[in-house]
Design goal:
There is one protein chain. It is built from 10 helices and 6 strands, in the order αβαβαββαβααβαααα. The protein is an alpha+beta fold. It folds into 2 domains: 13-42 and 130-301, Up-down Bundle (Multidrug efflux transporter AcrB transmembrane fold); 49-126, Alpha-Beta Plaits. A 4-stranded antiparallel β-sheet has the order 3-4-2-5. A hairpin with a 4-residue loop joins strand 3 (78-81) and strand 4. Helix 6 runs antiparallel to helix 9 (263-294). The longest helix is centred in the C-terminal third of the chain and has 33 residues, at 225-257. 31% of the residues are buried.
């Protein structure tokens, strides 16, 4: 199946400056949002604290729950709906006595809702040191994935291809994180897993385009690199769109029907698939052309 007919010749390289300007604008907006919010909206995994999930028999009122928590000093907790009859409560306190905290919450809610009208399903506690350690490891996981791919692409192709591929991945991660900041969505370990998935997806698409570029460079030595890149992107465009579209459909289904647990994970993938496809076409390959002006390829130097 081909969405794009053979013989098409869209001038992707000619729009490189426009694409770069758009990407920079989105990145700046995302970074400004992070500064404006005073950082990302870290989940309990990174920020530390206590998470309590409670299921009620009837749809609860956040104000009533907050009033009930006044007696135990948790009135400033974050209360979020989790489905129709469940709530997730997050507090900055990270007491190691889970049973004691659970008992206090149960007593406070019983006074308002009555006994057997709710069920405490889980209590999770993450200390500040553990949260800090998880933050550091999450950052290292992403950075090491970049470094590993940089080494592989430089060995498999050339260093200029590696630079383009890694900058495109950095671009994808920054924009996805920026979108989460703009929407003030919670950033936790699940989102880190989504970012690593996005990195793997995006680099796979980029490698396909790179392989076609290298193939065409060897076939058409006299053709300019800009024309070769354009031809290569056009030749793989149908495959890129088909792959991205099918993945996008699956993620859309997960987003709408996967439930609240993986809602944010699916949303991150939705953003990542779109941004990753865009960067493979408009960021990774044109960077190879830009890098060529700084350091010509071995093939060009040997001519």
């Amino acid at each position: 199946m081909e969405f794009i007919k053979s013989g098409t010749n869209f001038d992707f390289v000619g729009r490189m400056k426009i694409a770069l300007a758009c990407s920079l604008a989105v990145i700046v907006i995302g970074m400004a949002s992070i500064v404006w919010h005073g950082g990302l909206n870290y989940g309990i995994d990174f920020a530390g604290g206590t998470l309590v999930q409670i299921k009620f028999q009837k749809e609860p009122s956040a104000d009533a729950i907050r009033n009930a928590f006044t007696s135990i000093g948790l009135e400033n907790s974050i209360i979020q709906s989790f489905g129709t009859s469940e709530v997730v409560i997050r507090t900055a306190e990270s007491s190691s006595d889970q049973r004691g905290l659970s008992g206090k919450i149960e007593d406070a809610l019983t006074a308002v809702y009555g006994k057997d009208s709710f069920e405490i399903r889980r209590v999770e506690v993450v200390g500040p040191k553990v949260g800090s350690d998880l933050t550091r490891k999450a950052i290292l996981a992403i950075v090491f994935s970049w470094i590993g791919m940089l080494i592989y692409i430089a060995w498999r192709f050339e260093f200029r291809y590696a630079v383009g591929g890694i900058l495109a991945l950095v671009h994808d991660v920054i924009i996805t994180v920026g979108v989460f900041s703009l929407l003030n969505k919670e950033f936790d370990l699940t989102i880190v897993a989504a970012l690593l998935t996005i990195i793997g997806y995006s680099i796979n698409d980029t490698i396909v385009v790179y392989d076609r570029i290298r193939e065409n460079v060897r076939k058409n030595v006299k053709q300019s690199l800009a024309d070769t890149i354009n031809a290569s992107i056009n030749q793989t465009l149908s495959r890129t769109i088909l792959t991205s579209f099918t993945v996008f459909l699956v993620v859309v289904v997960l987003f709408f029907f996967g439930g609240a647990v993986i809602h944010d994970f699916a949303f991150a993938l939705l953003v990542g698939v779109v941004v990753g496809t865009y960067s493979s076409i408009f960021i990774a390959s044109p960077i190879v052309l830009a890098f060529e002006k700084i350091k010509p390829s071995r093939l060009k130097r040997s001519k």
